[in-house]
Specification:
This protein is mostly helical and about 220 residues long. The protein has one domain: Four Helix Bundle (Hemerythrin (Met), subunit A), CATH 1.20.120. It is about 75% helix and about 5% strand.
Length: about 220
């Protein structure tokens, strides 16, 4: 259910972007990011993990963190370059799909403390954050970051996975997002965001707190 929720957030994000509601679209990608960071661990906690769930997770990721961010970047900036901008925006999900496929076939991925290349979830989340605060960030920075993320996803650079930290994967990025969200709400623009954020954010904060307390208790037992 969490994985399918992630996929549905990606679908809704594309729809919001096409309708010109770019901040809604960005927020939905970040909600999908929350769900993605929770589904795997919850499945293991409930002993419900399966090969089907792992494959479904990859399919959801390519939509929510590959296709949706590329549409978002196209509609907010690359549209100025007509068909060229559309073609360039389409490169992001291609690189992301290759990165996911390479990760899925790696035999020793569970024993590593690092990722090979930037995970597509992190890359998509970064693009969503850039769009969310696009009015304060020069377009050239978005272009450079977009291009860099495409190549970093398929690179052989080792990215720490932070598995020993008692937070979900990408918890740091999402925590930064929560801080940004509080700032946006403080600025009085909260009415523009989908109501789902008011459900997802408290649930995710509770989940982070649970993981942190559980991690602390494990360390005390050791």
């Amino acid at each position: 259910m969490f994985t399918l929720g992630n996929l549905y957030c990606g679908f809704l994000s594309i729809g919001f972007a096409a309708d010109g509601q770019y901040k809604n679209a960005a927020i939905l990608i970040l909600i999908g990011m929350m769900l993605d960071s929770m589904d795997g661990r919850l499945a293991r906690m409930l002993k419900a993990d399966s090969s089907l769930g792992k494959e479904l997770d990859s399919l959801a990721d390519i939509v929510t963190f590959g296709v949706a961010p590329s549409f978002l970047v196209y509609y907010t900036y690359f549209y100025q370059f007509d068909i060229l901008g559309f073609a360039v925006a389409g490169l992001f999900p291609l690189f992301g799909a290759y990165r996911l496929a390479r990760f899925n076939i790696s035999t020793d991925k569970t024993s590593l403390n690092y990722f090979i290349g930037v995970p597509i979830t992190a890359a998509g989340g970064i693009l969503a954050l850039l769009t969310l605060f696009g009015d304060r960030i020069p377009n050239i920075i978005t272009t450079v970051v977009f291009t860099a993320l495409c190549f970093l996803m398929v690179s052989r650079i080792r990215i720490p996975s932070f598995k020993e930290i008692p937070l979900p994967k990408y918890g740091t990025i999402v925590t930064i997002f929560l801080g940004c969200l509080l700032y946006v709400i403080y600025r009085g623009t909260y009415g523009q965001f989908p109501y789902l954020i008011y459900i997802a954010t408290p649930l995710y904060i509770a989940y982070l707190a649970y993981r942190f307390v559980k991690g602390k208790s494990k360390k005390n037992e050791e």
